[in-house]
Design brief:
The structure holds three protein chains of three kinds.
Chain A (H helix, E strand, L loop, with lengths): L5 H14 L2 H4 L2 H27 L6 H18 L4 H23 L4 H9 L1 H17 L4 E2 L6 H23 L2 H11 L1 H6 L4 H27 L1 E2 L1 H4 L3 H13 L6 H19 L4 H14 L4 H15 L1
Helix pairs in contact in A: 1-8, 3-8, 3-11, 3-13, 3-14, 4-5, 4-7, 4-11, 5-11, 8-11, 13-14, 13-15, 13-16
Chain B lengths: L5 E12 L2 E12 L3 E5 L6 H9 L6 E6 L2 E2 L5 H7 L1 E3 L12 H10 L8 H13 L15 H14 L4 E5 L7 H16 L4 E4 L3 H7 L2 E6 L2 E7 H5 L2 H8 L5
Parallel strand pairs in B: 3-8, 3-9, 6-7, 7-8
Antiparallel strand pairs in B: 1-2, 1-4, 4-5, 9-10
Helix pairs in contact in B: 3-4, 3-5, 4-5
Chain C lengths: L1 H26 L8 H19 L3 H30 L3 H26 L3 E2 L7 E4 L2 E4 H23 L1 H11 L1 H6 L4 H23 L5 E2 L3 H15 L4 H21 L5 H15 L11
Antiparallel strand pairs in C: 1-4, 2-3
Helix pairs in contact in C: 1-5, 1-8, 1-9, 1-10, 2-3, 2-4, 2-8, 2-9, 3-4, 3-8, 5-6, 5-8, 6-8, 9-10, 9-11, 10-11
The chains are: A mainly alpha, B alpha/beta, C mainly alpha.
C-alpha cells in the first residue's frame, strides 16, 4: 500500500459528508442496506489495514464482532450497564483478544494464522454458550435502546471514517513504511531493524478494536443477542471477500468491493436462499482467477493502459 | 590475537543443528577500521558465522559482543539497531518499492532513526556513494545484478552500521562487474569502515583484507595477516587436500 | 475412563487417515487445501446416499469412491490449482492463492451438497453394540477403525518401499532437487494431491457410518485435520498418527468429563500449546 495522499483524504472527507445524508433520502429496506454497507466498510477497511501489507488472511472478524455484540448484550441485560460504557469496554476486550492472538500466532507463517482464525469465532461461541449455560443461567440477552437505524448508520459511518483516517495516518508513518517492507521481505525487514512481530501485533490489534466496536454498535439492531447469531463465521468470509474484491492496493479499495457484493448477495439470498452459499464460493474463485488485485487493481490497470496508448 | 578496543568480539562460539556441528569453538576479534575476511572451503561454516553475528539464529554456546555489549542472544532487529548491517548471499531487495525507498528502509529503522525529508536526503547521498543515484526512482525489477547488489549495499550503509557484514558480496559478478565491485569495497575501506567479509574471490581478499580468519569444518584453523594466512600450510591443505600440501 | 480410552482410540483411526490425506496435499503438492473437510463430507454423502437409495454397503462405497475421488481431485489440481502454482513467485503467494481458491471450492461443494441433501446424513449401518475390553461401543466404529488402520498401513508401506512412493517423499523434501534428479514434479504433485483427496473422501465415507454429518460440517473436520497435521509436523506420518490419537483422546475426554460443546475449544487449546512451544510439531524438524 503506497502512502496515501492529502488529495485522497479530502475526497474521503467529501464522500463521508455526502454519505451522511443517506438516512434522509431512504428508509426501510434501503436504509437497512445502508447500515450493512457502513458496517462492512468499517470491517473490511480495518481488515485491509492489517492484511493488505502483511498478506495474512484473517478470519477473526466474526470473533471480534461477536465479542462486541456479546459484551453489549451481557453488560446491558446482566449488569444494567449503559450502552456507551459497554461500547468502550468491548473495544478494550476486542483489542486485548487480538493482541493475545497476534502474539501467539503472528511470529509464525501465515498458514498457522489462517487456520487459527478459521475456527476462532466458533470456539469463542462454544465457550460463551458453555459459560452462559453453566454459570450465568441461560437467560436471554436484551439490548433495548432508543436508537433507530439512522442512528446506527451514522455511528457506523463515523466508525468507518475513523478507520479510514487511522489508515491514512498509518500509511504515512514509519509504521506504515515498516509494513510495506515486511510485506516485501520479512527477513530484510528484521535486518534493517524493524520489530516485525510488534508491527504486526499493533495492526492486528486495531482490527480487533474496530471489529468489536462495530459488533457493539450493531447489537441494538437485533435487540435480542444470541451467541449463534453474533458469532456467525460467515461474517468473516464476507469481510475477506469484500476487501479483496475491492483490492488491497488502496485504502479506499474495500468500499468498492462492499457495495456490489452486498447487492448481489441480497438479491441471490432473497430469490434463491438455498444457493446463496454458492455466491461465496464463486466470489472467492473470481478473486483468485480473474481479479487478483481487485476492482481497484483492474481500474488502475485500465487507466495505465489508456495512458500508454 | 587479542586487540584492545575490539568493535566486534566473537568468543568460543559453537552452533549445532541437531547432531551436526556447523561451527565449533570459534573466537576472533575485529578492531575499529579493520577489514577482516572470513575464508574457507564450502560448507566450513562461514555463512553460519555471519548469520549468528546478525542474529538469524542464536549460537548454541559462546558469546558475541559489539563494543562490549552482548548481542549473541538478541533478535536480528535489535542487533541491526545496535549497529550491525549485513548483505545477503543471494541479493534481497524489496520488490514493490523503488530504489530510493529500498535504501530509505535502511535509513529509517537503523540506530539513527531518520524520517521524512531527512531520510530521503540521506538515502540519496548513500545512493550517490555507490553510484546509483541516477536510478533512484526506477523499480528494482529493472536493475542488473550488480546494480541490485549496489542498492542492497546502499540500504545496508544507510543504517550507518558500526560493523558491516558482507556475505559473498562479489559472488556471481562477471569480470568487469567484479572490478567495479572491488573498487567500491575498496572505497568503503578507505572511509575507515569496519568490515567483515565472507568471500571466495581470492584476488579480492588479497587486495582488500588486512586480516583473514580461516575456517575449515566449522573450526578456526588460521588467523593472521592476509599474506601470512594464505601461505600457511594448514590453510593450503584445507583448500586443496593433503596430497597437494 | 476405559470408555474414553477405547472410543478415543477408535475415532483417532479415521482422524489419522484424514489428516494423512491433508498432509500429502500440503507436504508434497504444497497446497493448503481448506476444502479438505468438504471432500470428506462428499465421501460421507456418497455413503449415505448410496445406502439409503440403493442399500449399497458403505464398505462397498469406499471402493467405489476411490476412482471417482481420485479423478475428481486430479482434475481440480490439474485445471484449478496448476495455474496458481505456475503464476506464484513465492511459496507465500501460492499459500495465499491456494487458501482463497480452496475456500471458494469448499463453499461451492457445500452449495452442491445442500441441494442434494439439506438435512442430516442419518443412516444406521452395523450399529449393534459390541464390547471391547469391557467397554461398550458399536460395531461400525470398530470396522471403520480397522479399515482406516489398514489403509494407513498400506499407504505407509507404499510411501516407504515403492519406487513412486520414494518419488513422492523426495518431492516433499525439495521440489527443486527432485526436478534435478529427473522426477516429474508437476505429475507427482498432481497424483499426490489426487491421492490425498481420495484418502480424505474414503475417510469421510468411513466416518459417516458412526457420526451423523450434514452438508456444512466440513470446516470442523478441516480444522481437526489441520490441527493434527501441525501437531504431528508437516510431512510426518508417524507424527500425524500420534497427534490423531492425542486429539481423539482429548476430545472424547472433554466430551464425557466436561461438556460435549467444548470439544472444539479443547482442540484449540492443544493447538495453542503447540504453536507456543513447538511450532514445528511433535516430530517435525525445526526449519532453518
Amino acid at each position: 500500500m503506497n502512502p496515501a495522499t492529502v488529495q485522497e483524504l479530502i475526497w474521503a472527507g467529501v464522500l463521508v459528508a455526502l454519505a451522511a445524508f443517506w438516512p434522509m433520502m431512504s428508509n426501510g429496506y434501503w436504509l437497512g442496506i445502508g447500515v450493512d454497507v457502513m458496517m462492512y466498510t468499517a470491517l473490511a477497511t480495518s481488515w485491509m489495514l492489517f492484511s493488505g501489507p502483511t498478506h495474512y488472511i484473517s478470519l477473526a472478524s466474526a470473533a471480534f464482532f461477536g465479542v462486541g455484540g456479546f459484551v453489549v448484550g451481557s453488560g446491558m441485560s446482566d449488569y444494567d450497564a449503559s450502552f456507551w460504557s459497554m461500547l468502550a469496554l468491548s473495544a478494550v476486550i476486542g483489542g486485548v483478544l487480538a493482541a493475545l492472538i497476534g502474539l501467539a500466532t503472528l511470529r509464525l507463517s501465515g498458514v498457522y494464522f489462517v487456520i487459527f482464525t478459521l475456527g476462532l469465532a466458533e470456539m469463542i461461541r462454544n465457550l460463551v454458550s458453555w459459560v452462559q449455560n453453566n454459570f450465568l443461567g441461560s437467560r436471554g440477552l436484551y439490548v433495548l435502546t432508543e436508537f433507530t437505524d439512522a442512528h446506527l448508520y451514522w455511528m457506523l459511518l463515523l466508525t468507518a471514517g475513523c478507520v479510514y483516517l487511522l489508515g491514512w495516518i498509518i500509511s504515512r508513518s514509519r509504521l506504515g513504511f515498516a509494513l510495506r517492507i515486511i510485506g516485501g521481505d520479512e527477513t530484510v525487514a528484521r535486518h534493517v531493524g524493524i520489530n516485525t512481530a510488534m508491527a504486526k501485533v499493533i495492526l492486528f490489534t486495531t482490527t480487533g478494536v474496530f471489529g468489536a466496536i462495530v459488533g457493539a454498535i450493531i447489537a441494538p439492531r437485533w435487540s435480542y443477542i444470541e451467541p449463534n447469531q453474533v458469532f456467525s463465521p460467515q461474517l468473516s468470509f464476507f469481510v475477506v471477500i469484500m476487501a479483496l474484491l475491492g483490492g488491497s492496493g488502496r485504502l479506499w479499495g474495500p468500499v468498492v468491493g462492499v457495495i456490489p457484493f452486498l447487492l448481489i448477495w441480497n438479491w441471490v439470498d432473497s430469490n434463491f436462499p438455498n444457493q446463496s452459499i454458492l455466491v461465496l464460493g464463486v466470489a472467492f474463485l473470481v478473486i483468485v482467477y480473474f481479479l487478483p488485485h481487485g476492482f481497484v487493481g483492474r481500474i488502475e490497470q485500465l487507466r495505465a493502459r489508456a495512458r500508454g496508448r | 590475537m587479542k586487540q584492545a578496543g575490539a568493535v566486534l568480539s566473537v568468543k568460543n562460539i559453537t552452533k549445532r543443528f541437531g547432531g551436526l556441528v556447523a561451527v565449533s569453538n570459534m573466537s576472533f576479534d575485529v578492531a575499529e577500521h579493520e577489514m577482516v575476511g572470513i575464508i574457507g572451503p564450502n560448507g566450513s561454516g562461514k555463512t553460519t558465522m555471519i548469520n549468528m553475528i546478525s542474529g538469524v539464529f542464536a549460537p548454541t554456546d559462546g558469546r558475541i559482543s559489539l563494543r562490549g555489549r552482548l548481542i549473541s542472544d538478541a533478535a536480528p532487529q535489535i542487533i541491526a539497531r545496535e549497529g550491525v548491517g549485513r548483505t545477503f548471499q543471494l541479493v534481497r531487495l524489496l520488490p514493490g518499492l523503488s530504489v530510493l525507498e529500498n535504501v530509505m528502509a535502511g535509513a529509517v529503522y537503523g540506530h539513527k532513526r531518520r524520517w521524512g525529508r531527512e531520510a530521503e536526503d540521506f538515502a540519496h547521498s548513500v545512493l550517490e556513494r555507490v553510484g546509483m543515484d541516477a536510478m533512484s526512482h526506477a523499480p528494482v525489477s529493472s536493475l542488473t545484478y550488480i546494480d541490485q547488489k549496489r542498492v542492497e549495499l546502499a540500504r545496508t550503509l544507510a543504517g550507518e552500521p558500526k560493523v558491516l557484514l558482507l556475505d559473498e558480496w562479489l559472488a556471481g559478478l562477471n569480470p568487469t562487474e567484479l572490478e567495479t565491485g572491488i573498487e567500491l569495497i575498496h572505497n568503503l575501506r578507505n572511509e575507515g569502515r569496519t568490515i567483515v567479509m565472507v568471500e571466495h574471490v581470492m584476488d579480492a581478499i588479497r587486495s582488500l583484507c588486512d586480516r583473514c580468519v580461516v575456517m575449515s569444518s566449522g573450526a578456526k584453523i588460521a588467523d593472521g595477516t592476509t599474506d601470512d594466512v594464505l601461505s600457511d600450510q594448514d590453510v593450503i591443505r584445507a583448500y586443496l587436500g593433503d596430497d597437494d600440501a | 475412563m476405559l470408555d474414553i480410552l477405547v472410543s478415543g482410540l477408535l475415532v483417532s483411526g479415521t482422524y489419522a487417515l484424514v489428516a494423512m490425506g491433508l498432509n500429502l496435499q500440503y507436504g508434497v503438492a504444497r497446497i493448503m487445501n481448506l476444502a479438505n473437510g468438504e471432500v470428506l463430507v462428499l465421501g460421507a454423502l456418497a455413503a449415505f446416499w448410496l445406502y439409503t437409495t440403493a442399500q449399497i454397503s458403505p464398505i462397498l462405497t469406499v471402493i467405489l469412491v476411490i476412482p471417482v475421488a481420485f479423478i475428481g481431485n486430479w482434475l481440480i489440481y490439474r485445471f484449478l490449482l496448476t495455474p496458481l502454482v505456475r503464476r506464484s513467485k513465492s511459496q507465500g503467494a501460492l499459500e495465499v492463492d491456494s487458501i482463497l481458491a480452496t475456500f471458494g471450492m469448499s463453499f461451492i461443494f457445500i452449495g452442491i451438497m445442500v441441494s442434494i441433501e439439506g438435512g442430516f446424513f442419518f443412516y444406521k449401518y452395523l450399529s449393534e453394540p459390541i464390547s471391547i475390553l469391557g467397554s461398550t461401543t458399536s460395531l461400525n466404529r470398530l470396522v471403520a477403525f480397522l479399515l482406516a488402520v489398514l489403509i494407513a498401513a498400506a499407504l505407509y508401506i507404499w510411501l516407504h518401499y515403492s519406487r513412486p512412493g520414494v518419488a513422492v517423499r523426495a518431492v516433499s523434501v525439495s521440489t527443486e532437487a527432485s526436478g534435478l534428479v529427473g522426477i516429474n514434479v508437476p505429475r507427482v504433485s498432481a497424483l499426490t494431491f489426487a491421492l490425498g483427496g481420495t484418502i480424505t473422501a474414503v475417510g469421510g465415507a468411513l466416518i459417516s457410518t458412526f457420526i451423523t454429518l450434514d452438508a456444512s460440517i466440513g470446516v470442523v473436520f478441516t480444522l481437526k485435520a489441520l490441527i493434527i497435521v501441525i501437531m504431528g509436523g508437516v510431512g510426518e506420518i508417524r507424527g500425524a498418527i500420534v497427534a490423531a490419537i492425542i486429539l481423539g483422546l482429548v476430545e472424547t475426554g472433554v466430551a464425557t468429563l466436561v461438556d460435549p460443546g467444548l470439544t472444539l475449544a479443547a482442540a484449540y487449546f492443544i493447538f495453542v500449546i503447540i504453536l507456543l512451544f513447538r511450532p514445528q510439531g511433535l516430530f517435525g524438524r525445526r526449519a532453518v
